[in-house]
């Protein structure tokens, strides 16, 4: 595929995997049912014919499932020396031919019927607990009896073996196949898709085990870092366009700019999945840390690379849904920092310009819940009553509330500042972003609440925002939040246009990552902390 074909592909907005994905989705099955129903309206004779055809098709599907199931059993049960590429190929091809529902059925069979033997585990534990610990008084003279210890070693070895599920054999044998690693990511993507429908314990255990295996097989030592340039094959560049998840590549000129002077793109590759990055990161070389995505994507012409002092990571995208939850990005960022420091010693700042995907969802939910509490207690006007309600919180400062009430005009109405804010931010038209007066009134409360969301709102002791959690666990700090940094539809919907700079200080990465992992501590600059401190100071003054 040449670059001209790539340009045509981009202009046509084609997605090469759409037909494959659609064919495997439950929606396609529903569509086929609708089509068969519509055909059935033609005549009773045609209806009988279609019924017969439908019966044959259902029988063929059942036979196909049984064939693939038997093929899977053969891969698991055959001796290691008997399992060649032909046996593995049969299972790979058979699995890929299954409908989504049959894949679901097969994976549930794998999870339940090829799990570990719990009766054996219980028996071994019973035997182990029945032994007298080494060095106990029951042993004569306190001298270690090698024969006695060998019993421990034997049971411990058998116990380790019995705690491995039978489906481990399938995973390990598939991994020996040239296409096996890619295939295992497809299987895990299917498992994750099924788990969105409901939490099935056996399937969750299967997923956990496969995730552990993939994490081991995709260790940093097994991955190759490659700088992606305009000179790479068009088939690889097509994948960069297809998988870019943060800031879509709009056309061929945009792609060329992202791979040109003042820009870098690095990807992690594995020998078992050639010509396709597992994850890639886009970097802009700038004089200063960018405050808006517009200056990164539309900076034309870029500065001379010798003048750059900042390497800005503005997009990181994973290409394999089946690798979700496996933090390849952590190693990628560290490797890129090391490489850039070697190639360009004049670069001293390593930062990101990141989206805040969960901010608006959290804020709108917070506003709605607080207004519901206020309405239930009829306290929208009574500060005295407010203070007695345990769960009520006016998340706006008095001056912020007054500014919103004065600026809302005809765009939104409400009895309080919170109600006005909710009514302004809920519509998808984002009309507030076109009003200078409303922008001025919303800036302080939104920036302050965004700082609170990033630094204080947590889930299981870690940052609630997924992107924040990713960078913080990798050793970054929250450096700055930027007003109206992404004015696209997506940016306004996710975070009211606000973006955040995370900074990676090479000398502090491990320390920051460890304190976040062990204590949930989030390192941030004084400027970001100031938003929180001002709110706390105002709260303490109000209570005096």
Automatic annotation (TrEMBL):
Gene Ontology terms for molecular function: malonyl-CoA decarboxylase activity
GO cellular component: mitochondrial matrix; peroxisomal matrix
Gene3D superfamilies: Malonyl-CoA decarboxylase, catalytic domain, Malonyl-CoA decarboxylase, oligemerization domain
Record domain Malonyl-CoA decarboxylase N-terminal: where: 155-217
Any one biological process term the GO annotation gives: fatty acid biosynthetic process
InterPro entries named among the record's database cross-references: Malonyl_CoA_deC, Malonyl_CoA_deC_C, Malonyl_CoA_deC_C_sf, MCD_N, MCD_N_sf
Protein name: Malonyl-CoA decarboxylase C-terminal domain-containing protein
Amino acid composition bias (Basic and acidic residues), ranges on this chain: 45-58
Domain Malonyl-CoA decarboxylase C-terminal positions: 222-504
Chain intervals for the UniProt region annotation (Disordered): 36-58
């Amino acid at each position: 595929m040449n670059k001209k074909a790539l340009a045509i592909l981009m202009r046509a907005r084609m997605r090469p995997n759409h037909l494959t994905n659609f064919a495997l989705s439950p929606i396609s099955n529903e569509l086929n049912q609708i089509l068969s129903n519509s055909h059935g309206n033609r005549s009773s004779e045609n209806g009988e014919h279609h019924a017969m055809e439908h019966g044959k098709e259902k029988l063929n599907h059942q036979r196909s499932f049984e064939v693939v199931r038997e093929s899977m059993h053969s891969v698991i049960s055959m001796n290691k020396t008997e399992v060649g590429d032909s046996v593995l190929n049969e299972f790979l091809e058979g699995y890929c031919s299954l409908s989504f529902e049959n894949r679901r059925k097969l994976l549930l069979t794998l999870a339940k019927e090829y799990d570990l033997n719990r009766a054996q585990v219980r028996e071994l534990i019973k035997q182990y607990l029945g032994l007298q610990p080494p060095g106990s008084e029951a042993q004569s003279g306190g001298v270690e009896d090698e024969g006695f210890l060998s019993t421990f070693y034997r049971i411990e070895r058998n116990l380790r073996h019995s705690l491995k599920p039978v489906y481990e054999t399938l995973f390990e044998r598939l991994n020996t196949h040239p296409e096996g690693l890619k295939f295992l990511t497809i299987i895990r993507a299917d498992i994750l898709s099924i788990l969105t429908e409901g939490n099935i314990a056996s399937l969750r255990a299967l997923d956990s085990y496969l995730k552990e295996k993939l994490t081991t097989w995709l260790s940093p030592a097994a991955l190759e870092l490659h700088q992606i340039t305009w000179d790479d094959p068009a088939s690889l560049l097509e994948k960069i366009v297809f998988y870019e998840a943060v800031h879509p590549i709009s056309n061929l000129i945009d792609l060329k700019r992202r791979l040109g002077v003042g820009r870098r793109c690095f990807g992690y590759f594995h020998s078992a999945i050639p010509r396709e990055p597992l994850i890639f990161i886009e970097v802009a070389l700038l004089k200063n840390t960018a405050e808006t995505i517009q200056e990164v994507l539309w900076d034309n012409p870029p500065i001379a690379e010798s003048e750059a002092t900042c390497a800005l990571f503005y997009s990181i995208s994973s290409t394999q849904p089946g690798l979700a939850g496996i933090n390849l990005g952590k190693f990628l960022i560290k490797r890129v920092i090391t490489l850039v420091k070697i190639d360009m010693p004049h670069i001293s700042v390593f930062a990101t310009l990141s989206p805040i995907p969960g901010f608006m969802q959290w804020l709108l939910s917070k506003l709605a819940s607080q207004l519901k509490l206020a309405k239930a207690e009829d306290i929208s006007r009574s500060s005295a009553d407010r203070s007695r309600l345990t769960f009520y919180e006016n998340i706006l400062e008095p001056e912020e509330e007054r500014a919103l009430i004065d600026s809302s005009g005809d765009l939104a109405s409400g009895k309080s500042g919170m109600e006005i804010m909710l009514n302004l931010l809920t519509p998808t038209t984002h009309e507030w972003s076109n009003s200078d007066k409303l922008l001025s009134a919303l800036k302080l409360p939104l920036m302050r609440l965004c700082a609170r969301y990033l630094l204080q709102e947590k889930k299981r002791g870690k940052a609630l925002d997924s992107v924040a959690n990713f960078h913080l666990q990798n050793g970054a700090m929250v450096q700055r939040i930027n007003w109206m940094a992404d004015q696209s539809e997506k940016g306004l919907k996710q975070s009211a246009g606000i973006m955040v700079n995370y900074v990676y200080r090479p000398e502090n990465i491990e320390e920051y990552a460890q304190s976040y992992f062990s204590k949930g501590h989030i390192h941030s600059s004084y400027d970001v902390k100031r938003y929180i401190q001002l709110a706390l100071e105002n709260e303490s003054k109000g209570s005096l």
